[in-house]
Structure formats: structure tokens, C-alpha cells
Amino acid sequence: MTSVAPTLSDYRALRSTGTPSFFALPPAVELLRDRVREFAETQLRPAAERADDGRGGFDQRVLDAGHDIGLLRMIVPEEYGGLGHGILGTAVVMEELAAVCANSALVFGANVLAQAAVLLSGNPLLQSRYLTTFADEEPALACNVVTEETTGTTEVVLQGRFALVDDGLVARRDGDHYIINGHKRHVTNGRLASWACVYANLVGRSGSVGLTAFIVPLDAEGVTRSDTPDGPGHGPCLEAHLDFTEVRVPAENVVAGEGNGEHLSALQSNLIRASVAAISTGVARGAFEIAHRWSAHRRLGGLPLFRHQSGARKLAEMSSKIEAARLLYLQAAHQVDNLLPTPSYGPAVAKLFADRIAIEVAEEAMSVLGSRAYARECGLERYVRDAFGTLTHEGTPETLAQEIADALYPGGRPYSLDPPAVPVATDAPRPVVRRLGPSESGGW
Ligand SMILES: Cc1cc2nc3c(=O)[nH]c(=O)nc-3n(C[C@H](O)[C@H](O)[C@H](O)COP(=O)(O)OP(=O)(O)OC[C@H]3O[C@@H](n4cnc5c(N)ncnc54)[C@H](O)[C@@H]3O)c2cc1C
């Protein structure tokens, strides 16, 4: 197994020095992290390297092995056959995966995002029908479907509202079903997922009822999947475009009530952002580990690179940034799991910071490796590409900055756990805010 550079907040490193740790992870999370670290090194790394060399796409064996250790049911409650972890456990797993393969972190992370919608629905029927799939023998995937051709960042966050546009996904009621038509773009897991949490503009007799989320089985008649163009990073994350033509969905598949989609989506984002921040932290760590090894190997003027002051300074700066990013995402995950006030602020701060340092650390790693950085076999190129990848999903730097600023200034419009300001059209149930995972995150 490749050695991982010891880190200040690594519980085992602290324990081995006898230092009592304020940051001890709960034992169940520590156990999961160790399992995932081994899985990442033994199974994920070879698959990621093969894919990066163009010798394969997403490897089904990775999905199977991830399923074996529970990565497809991390936040699924135990009563539905899951591991019952919260966002803390999920985020720790995401760092481990992304330190080796950010694509795979995205695949397992998008699955969690879709499951979170079902958990937040508080609807036992949806939960027992759609969460239990992940305990089946065969691995199953889900996806979360928001992005449209014209509804990107601005509509979702910067204006504080979802815009309901003409060419977006539209749903209409038809007896005890809804009928969905339109197009969605850039859906992680879209190629393989068995069901999706799909956001559509629900239109009634007198106009738009509001954004509404539906659970849609993707084998339903009228659903078409198509490949997305090749991108610079996050390659095989099973991304697809999804088209919907007269797709019939039972009325019971509405998540959290008609017109409550905006609020549900904001809650999902708050839940998942600590994990996406952990992905960026993992990418930074992966790049750092390559530079860390190289600095011991490379001798200049008779000394290893890290013995030269400027080389040491670079490594120390990189390591410090990763430590800070990790503490921020752990704190944000703890806030989310324990429903502390304004949980939107902590996750947004964690993601903004981690996204930024991933790029900075990847850049520094390039400079540490010098000309070797340009040799594909050193493996750094992938991390440099992936460092930019998480900038686009679950909040761009601009949208995160706006959300943070809104929380800092009274009179702004921060997302919170309060109901949305806009009136909703029905008295159907709202999203249920429930504690995820074990009741105690432990050790904090
Ligand atoms: C690898 C990958 C996986 C993805 N997975 C999913 C998925 O599973 N499900 C899904 O629904 N979507 C997914 N997406 C799509 C992603 O969520 C969108 O790309 C994201 O919401 C940004 O939208 P956009 O690309 O249309 O960018 P735009 O909205 O066009 O934004 C482009 C840039 O302009 C900035 N900007 C926009 N408006 C303003 C403004 N008013 N002021 C200042 N700056 C502004 C933005 O911050 C951004 O930097 C994925 C994307 C990628 C790359």
C-alpha cells in the first residue's frame, strides 16, 4: 500500500504519539475510513490509472467492490439495510476516495445526494421502496437531476430562486399520475442509475405550481439516456444527459410535496457540500502525496529536495492547507449531522475553501515535480484536472461566496432550515429535516 503522509488531524498519527485527540472520529467512522483506504489503494488506484491511460472507462469491478464494503448505502438507515452513517462518515469516505480517484468519489457521492432527497421526504413508502434497493446483492445507483440547458448557477442560487423556464423539464398532473417532458443535462450516474430524484416545473391549470421533485425509475417508458461530451476531468463518472418524453410517474413519487422543490434542493445542497469539500480535500491530498514522495527521492546539491528551505516551505504550505480544509469539512459535517443553526454557512465555507486549496496544492505539486510533472506516468496530471472539477457542482465559487455573504449580512437571504419565503401551492408535506446517521457524531 502507498504510504500516506501523516497529518495533524489523523487520529492514528496522534494516537501513536500518545497525544490525546480532540478530533477523534467515532470508532465506526474510523473503521469505515480504514476499509475505504484499503479499497482505494488496492482496487481503485489500478482502475483509475487504467482509465486515465485510456485503457478503460468506469470499472464495474470498482462498483462491485464498493458495494461489498457498503459504499452504496452509507447514509441509508440500518432499518433499510444500510450502514446508518451521517454526513461525517460520508465526507471522510469521500476524502479517501478522491485522494485516489475523484471520479469514483463523484459516483458514490451522487448516490448519497439522491438518497438524501428520499430521507428528507420523511415518506416511509418512498424510503422503503427506494432505499432498500441498495441492500440488494447487485449494486444499484441513483442520481440527482437538476441541471438544464438554460438553468445553471444563476437561477439556482444567485437569484435565490429557481427560475422556471420554458425549455426546462415540465410536469403536469394526470389523475393519479404525473406526466414529465423535457431535457436534463450533465447527470452524474445517469448512465447506470436505476432511479433518479428529478426536479421539474409543475404546471397546473392556472400556471406554474412551482419546482417539484419526483422519484423516477429510469427504466420508465419515455426516458432516454445519452452520452455527454468528453471533458478534461472527472471523466468516467457515468455522466449522461437524460431526455423525458411523456414519462408517467405515480403521484406517490412526489418528494416532499408539490411546489417544495426549491426548499428540498437547498437542504440537499447543505447536506452534501461538506462531502464535496471533502472530495476537493482528497484531490489536494492526492497531489500532495505525489509531491511528498518525490521530495524525499529527488536529490539536489546532495540533499533531498525537502531539506532545501524553499522545498520544505512548499510542502509545509501544502500540508497546512489540506489540514485546514479537512477541519472545515469535518466541522461542517458535524454541524449538518447535528442540525446546528445556519447549517448552510459552514458547508459553504468548507467547500469554497477546499475548492480553492485543491487548485493551489495541485499547482504547487506541479512545481515540486519540475519537468516530471509533465510525464503522465507520475500521475499528477489527473489531480490537476480534477482540482477544477468540483468548482462546477454543488455551488460555484461565485454562488458560495454569495451565500456566505448573505449569511454574514443581516437582511440578506441565506438559505436556512426555515420554510421557503414563497407560498407553496398545496398543503402537501414539506421536506422533513431529520438527523442523519447515529445520534452522536462522537468525540467532538
Ligand atoms: C462532472 C460534473 C458532474 C455533474 N453532475 C451533475 C448532476 O449529477 N446533476 C445535475 O443536475 N447537474 C450536474 N452537473 C451540472 C452542474 O451542477 C452545473 O454545471 C452547475 O450547476 C453550473 O451550471 P452551468 O454549467 O450551467 O454554469 P453557468 O450557470 O452557466 O455558470 C458559469 C459561470 O458563471 C458564473 N455565474 C453565473 N451567473 C452569475 C452571476 N449572476 N454573477 C456572477 N457569476 C455568475 C457561475 O458561478 C459559473 O462560474 C455536473 C457537472 C459536472 C461538470
TrEMBL record:
Residues passing through the membrane, by range: none
Official protein name in the record: Alkylation response protein AidB-like acyl-CoA dehydrogenase
Domain Acyl-CoA dehydrogenase/oxidase N-terminal: 30-138
Molecular-function annotations in GO: acyl-CoA dehydrogenase activity; flavin adenine dinucleotide binding
Ranges where the record places region Disordered: 419-444
Domain Acyl-CoA oxidase/dehydrogenase middle residues, every copy: 169-246
Cofactor: FAD
Keyword vocabulary terms for this entry: FAD, Flavoprotein, Oxidoreductase
Organism: Allostreptomyces psammosilenae
Residue ranges occupied by any Acyl-CoA dehydrogenase/oxidase C-terminal domain in the UniProt entry: 270-408
Ranges of compositional bias, category Low complexity: 423-435
Lineage: Bacteria, Bacillati, Actinomycetota, Actinomycetes, Kitasatosporales
GO biological process, one term: butyrate catabolic process
Family listed: Belongs to the acyl-CoA dehydrogenase family.
Flavoprotein among keywords: yes
